[in-house]
Amino acid sequence: ELISRLRSRLQVLWEDRELVLSEARECAEHGKELEATVREVCKPNEFERYMMFIGDLEKVVSLLLCLSSRLARVQNAMRKIDGNTDAEEKQSLNERHKLLSRQREDAKDLKENLDRRERVVSGILAKYLTDQQLQDYRRFVQVKTSLLIEQKDLEEQIKFFEEQLENLEKSIP
Questions:
Q1: Is 98 exposed, middle or buried (0-12, 13-18, 19+ CB in 10 A)?
Q2: Which residues contact 154 (CB under 8 A, 6 or more apart)?
Q3: CB atoms < 10 A from the CB of 129, how many?
Q4: Helices (H), 2-128
Q5: Where would one find coiled-coil regions in this protein (predicted)?
Q6: Nearest alpha carbon to residue 80 among 98, 70, 93, 95
């Protein structure tokens, strides 16, 4: 019964992931249209700033999500430490935790820098776009970020349930 429930939950997650991927493709298409508009109305250096921001948005958000996920896994492993855990493994987990924590702080700094750049890009676009187009741009940035987060969350859940299912199937003779 538990295996059946896990498989059912995985099926729902896979369907959700397909839906999010479909939304991400739509968002990417919308991004292409927005890019064409920005290319038409902005100066080349301003357009380049816009393109760098959009490219870095995905990289920085993905980096933050990845580091947070890895840090959470290390923290979970650290909670499982007990008297039987050897000193070398404890030290390795502590070092990985410190490293990932520093990297995540650096990524947060990158995100703050990216937020400042977004305000600059938004200011540039405000000179050229209508209010509706500017709202459209802001909605695009928000949706793109949300979809990246949702996609990463679904991938993590799928990975977790697949591991649970695999462990359960191995435990049954």
A1: exposed
A2: 13, 16, 17, 20
A3: 19
A4: 2-41, 44-79, 87-128
A5: 90-120, 144-171
A6: 93
The residue behind tokens 């991927």 is 21
Q: What is the CA radius of gyration of the chain?
A: 21
Q: How far apart are CA 88 and CA 32, in angstroms?
A: 50
Angle (nearest 5°) at CA 71 between 58 and 68: 25
User: How far is Cα 48 from Cα 37, in angstroms, rounded to an integer?
Assistant: 13
Candidates 152, 165, 155, 123; CA nearest to 2 is 165
pTM: 0.83
- Compute CA distances 139 → 21, 68, 117, 145, whole Å: 18, 25, 17, 10
- Any idea where the domains of the chain sit in the sequence? 1-171
Other C-beta atoms closer than 10 Å to the C-beta of 1 total: 5
